[in-house]
Design a protein that fits this description.
By secondary structure, the protein is an alpha+beta fold. It is about 35% helix and about 25% strand. The strands form 5 sheets. Strands 1-2-6-3-7-16 form a 6-stranded mixed beta sheet, with helices on both faces. Bound molecules: zinc ion.
Length: about 400
């Protein structure tokens, strides 16, 4: 009767071997995952090129539909259409949302100077890391779950791939939030953090402000004293703005762009600064907004105008975020590695879903480096276990 006993009671060894056999499944398919990423990288998809992004969207809609998903597009006139794919599951529970973006920061033609290639155990190419490897994990994890569950998924899954993440997600935010509201959890396939591939359990909120100074123009030789320099006023304001940075609170302000004046012999009547604001806690949003809007001119003959605001709330490490991380950490342990977590300064669409209070885990995508840079690449050896982690998380949430 020993055989029967083994069937009724699953020992920890059996669970472990289950995880290791699943990891082997992905290891056997490592080259296929590389091929998928290559296919996605070779369809270039800059945020500002609707036609290019739509081409990637329709390629992916086709691939997801082959896996049993129902694809639909949310039309966006000025950007690529946002792609939503719904998969039914054999449990009557809320879907898990797999969130990502189709767009990259690279213009069409970037492939000529940074071709998609394998070298030094890495796959290189524009968008390979941010975040076409993450999209490939979605495809391969869903394919695997269907293979393991008789051509169906163990639970409903909704994939959302937006087209404007790299330029602020203005046209997709509403869609991301409304899809997320119906989901049990959100798994964001943005790049992992650092060489160990940590997932992201906190991200800063992001805002952009524009400070415009209006002074008075005058000839710098004939009427010097008639002029009111907008550039001098702006320079003084920049020093004031920089003092608002509070590193301990995770609050930073960066004046990233300044513009002003017309020519050297004219006292400048106009000058503007564009600021990037990062906040670690939502409760800092109102305070920093108020302080920027109440800046007073040093030169009373100059006028200040402040526009903009916080456009992504911070993703805070709430108890539901921590619980989701613990689940992922436990799965990774069974797959044989220690999954770390990180808090980062950059925002993603996960900020929106976490801001709604929905359990969100970010940074589940590829492990690599060089996002938005010429050395963008991912580690090929990491692909199988990241895909295995995603598949197991979809089941476990
Ligand atoms: Zn990204």
């Amino acid at each position: 009767m020993p055989r029967r006993a083994a069937q009724t009671k699953i020992s920890p060894v059996a669970i472990e071997s289950d995880h290791s056999s699943r990891l082997r499944y992905f290891e056997d398919r490592r080259d296929q995952i590389v091929q998928t990423i290559r296919q996605l990288v070779e369809v270039e998809s800059p945020s500002d090129n609707k036609q290019a992004v739509d081409q990637l969207g329709s390629l992916l809609a086709g691939r997801f539909e082959k896996l049993g998903g129902h694809a639909k597009f949310h039309r966006a006139p000025d950007f690529g259409d946002h792609l939503q794919v719904d998969f039914p599951g054999n449990r009557d529970v809320k879907p898990v949302m797999l969130l990502g973006h189709l767009d990259t920061v690279y213009p069409v033609g970037a492939l000529t100077t940074m071709p998609c290639r394998v070298a030094n155990a890495r796959l290189w190419g524009p968008g390979a890391f941010d975040m076409k490897s993450g999209i490939a994990f979605m495809l391969h994890a869903i394919e695997a779950l269907r293979a393991w569950h008789e051509d169906t998924l163990p639970r409903p899954v909704t994939v959302l791939l937006v087209s404007d993440e790299e330029v602020g997600s203005d046209t997709s935010r509403r869609i991301t939030e409304s899809v997320a509201r119906n989901c049990a959890a959100v798994l964001v396939l943005e790049p992992a953090h650092g060489p160990k591939g940590a997932v992201k359990t906190a991200r800063k909120g992001v805002g952009e402000y524009i400070l415009k100074v209006t002074g008075k123009a005058a000839h710098s030789g004939l009427d010097f004293e008639e002029g009111e320099s907008a550039i001098i006023e702006l320079a003084r304001q920049i020093i004031e703005i920089s003092k608002l940075t509070d590193l301990k609170r995770g609050l930073t302000l960066n004046v990233g762009k300044v513009q002003g004046g017309t020519r050297s012999n004219v006292i400048p009547a106009e000058a503007t600064a564009v600021l990037d604001v990062r906040i670690a806690r939502m409760k800092d949003a109102a305070g920093i907004d108020r302080r920027l809007r109440s800046l007073k001119p040093f030169n009373r003959k100059c006028k200040l105008q402040v526009t903009g605001g916080i456009n992504r709330p911070p993703m805070e490490r709430t108890p539901v975020v921590a619980a989701l991380y613990q689940k992922a950490e436990e799965i990774a342990k069974q797959l044989g590695w220690k999954l770390e977590e990180a808090a980062v300064g950059g925002g993603s669409d996960g900020n929106f879903t976490a801001g709604l209070g929905i359990p969100t885990l970010d940074g589940l995508g590829g492990v690599g480096e060089g996002a938005h840079a010429t050395h963008e690449s991912i580690l090929i050896s990491e692909l199988p276990r990241r895909a295995a982690l995603l598949a197991a998380l979809i089941e476990a949430v």
